Amino acid sequence: MIPRCPNKNCSQTSSIIKSGFFFRKDDSKKIQRYRCQNCSKNFSRATQSSTYRHKKRRINSLVFKFLSSGVSQRRLALNLGVHRLTIKRKLLFWAKLANSEQKKLLQNLNQSVSFVQIDDLITIEHTKLKPLSVSLAIKADDRTILGAVVSQIPAFGHLAELSRKKYGRRKSTQKEGLNKLMEAIAPAVHPLTYFESDEHQLYPPLILKHFPGSSHQSYPSERGAVTGQGELKKIKFDPLFSINHTCAMLRANINRLFRRTWCTTKLPEMLQKHLDVYVHFHNTQLI
Ligand SMILES: [Zn+2]
Q1: Of 70, 81, 85, 282, which residue is most buried, by most CB within 10 angstroms?
Q2: CA of 22 to the centre of ligand 1 (A)
Q3: 153 touches 175 (CB < 8 A)
Q4: Contact 254/278 with Cβ under 8 angstroms?
Q5: Are residues 39 and 154 in the same domain?
Q6: What's the CA-to-centroid distance between 96 and ligand 1, angstroms?
């Protein structure tokens, strides 16, 4: 198939002719060149590709797989023999692609999801004095991740006072985060959906606001089965097993969400991007 002319002001579609090849050293491929006879624009099959002007194309899929399999950015850079900034750029590339693919997936579900579980997973921004919350929504019957949104929360428990002393008052953006999550999943979710969650006080009003016809069941929180593994519960039947299992998968496969790790999130927006990549991996490779 002959591509369209990349010149936005050029309306001609039938004036494209083939115009030789060039050899792309990066992945040892012969790339077809084209020429538009209408506007004299030269371009190639690579021009409109999502990997246009990429260096190190060969590692793209490896980066996607390993960033979703618990490998740190620095160790990945070391093992693939590239600079860590290359890995960071690849993460940004995959996050953008993952985002648009996730939007397509939600559109394709076309309000067919009728059973949703939601939960929040706590992580940190560099120090435990600056906690973050990842609000997660899944399709409960097959554990497809519908959305994951990062928001800032104030420190709690015995660290609250120390956090205020050292960093000042930390605003909570969790309500905005949950609003964003609800808006994002709306194309996939049926208006009369059945929601399940723990007893988080923000959930009922927000579910009611975005899905007025839905029903919501909340369950009290249970203790984790193994110390440090709060997601998998020590009870015979866990009604929230699907969402807890998905949270455990996130903790096991996103390096910066590991418990007792020295790899931590430095920027919440990069955690969001890493989550977007994992969500795409999870929904396409594991479901
Ligand atoms: Zn043209």
Answers
A1: 282
A2: 20
A3: no
A4: yes
A5: no
A6: 28
Average pLDDT for residues 35-45, to the nearest whole number? 93
Q: CA–CA separation, 95 vs 182, rounded Å?
A: 20
Over residues 219-261, the pLDDT tens digits come to: 998 766 665 667 777 667 888 999 999 999 999 999 999 988 8
Kindly state whether residue 251 falls inside one of the protein's structural domains: yes
Cα–Cα distance, 44 to 18 (Å, whole number)? 9
Same domain for 35 and 131, yes or no, is: no
Question: Separation of 5 CA from ligand 1 center, angstroms?
Answer: 5
Asked if residue 174 belongs to a domain, the reply is yes
How far, in Å, from the CA of 40 to the mean position of ligand 1?
Answer: 6
Question: What is the overall mean pLDDT for the chain?
Answer: 93
Assigned token pair, 52: 């246009």
Please give the residue range of the domain that contains residue 31. Answer: 16-49
Same domain (yes/no): 215, 269: yes
Examine the pLDDT at 26 and tell me if it is beyond 80: yes
Whole-number Å distance, alpha carbon 86 to ligand 1 midpoint, is: 34
User: How many angstroms is it from 102 CA to the middle of ligand 1?
Assistant: 32
In the chain, the number of structural domains is 2
DSSP helix/strand/coil, 30 = strand
Distance 76 CA to ligand 1 centre (A): 42
Residue 86: in which H helix or E strand, if any?
A: helix 84-109
Q: How far is the CA of 4 from the centre of ligand 1 (A)?
A: 8
CB 197 within 8 A of CB 215: no
Residues 39 and 105 in one domain: no
Q: Do 93 and 68 sit in the same domain of this protein?
A: yes
